[in-house]
Amino acid sequence: MDPLSNEIKVLIIDTLNLEGMTPDEIDTGAALFGEGLGLDSIDALELGLALKNKYGVVLSAESEEMRQHFYSVETLAKFITEQKK
Q1: What confidence tens digit (pLDDT) does each residue in 13-61 have?
Q2: What is the DSSP string of 3-71?
Q3: Rounded distance, CA 54 to CA 49, Å?
C-alpha cells in the first residue's frame, strides 16, 4: 500500500473517531461520502482541517474541484502530492 494513502486512512480514522476500523478496511478507490464510507459534510470539514494541519494543503470549500479531490483516499493522496510540488 502507498504510504501516503495509508497515512490518510489513519488520519480519517483518528480524526473522525471511527473506532474499531482499520486502514485495511478503507478501500483506497472507494467513495468517502454517500454510498462509500458514508461520511457527511461535517466529516468533510473536520477532515479538511486535519489535512490542512498535517500536510499544509490549501483547501477551498467553494471549489467544485475540491469535491473531486475529496472523492476517495486515492484522489486525496494525488491532491496532496500535487500540492507539495
Answers
A1: 999 999 899 999 999 999 999 888 999 989 988 999 999 999 998 887 6
A2: HHHHHHHHHHHHHTT-TT--GGGS-TTS-SBTTSS-B-HHHHHHHHHHHHHHH-----TT-HHHHHHTS
A3: 9
Is residue 6 within 8 A of residue 23, CB to CB? The reply is yes
For residue 83, give the 3-state DSSP assignment.
helix
Contact (CB, 8 A) for 30 and 24 = no
Q: Does pTM top 0.70 for this prediction? A: yes
- Under 8 Å between Cβ of 84 and 40: no
Measured distance CA(59)–CA(38) in Å, rounded? 21
Residues 80 and 82: their CA atoms lie apart, in Å, by 5
Please give the span between the terminal C-alpha atoms of the chain, in angstroms, as a whole number. Answer: 22
